[in-house]
Sequence to fold (144 residues):
Amino acid sequence: MTFGKDHLLTLDAVHNMAVLFDNQGEYDKALSWYRRALDGYEKTFGNSHPSTHTTVNNMAAIFGIQGKHDDAFVWCQRALDGCERSLGKDHPSTLTMVSNMAAVFSNRGEFDKALEWCQRALQGYKRTFGSDHLSTLTAIRDIR
Fold:
């Protein structure tokens, strides 16, 4: 049995190659593989598929690591917008993207905005999971 270049399993394998390079600190190679996976996910599944959002988010993280904070912001915002549209504002994946936006602002030295995003994440986690859930407690820690 063969799957073809646009099959989900093939695209996931491409994405996993990107993760491998990402974990090894080979960010340019990782971005190339993420781009290839993203192109396939968007072509095959569109902008609302969870794998699309994850790939966009991973690319944002690399830009942040590389100190390309403006690029990180653009890509993180893109991931957040996609999650909000397809999953809703209080979905756990969306809230992760909200927390990631806080990190982007923090890395840019925009601490007031980072705090606002941390608080937004905290409120979402409280609504979704309650006050005693690990994600909620982690969001509280992030504010401190």
User: Anything to note?
Assistant: The chain has seven helices and no strands.
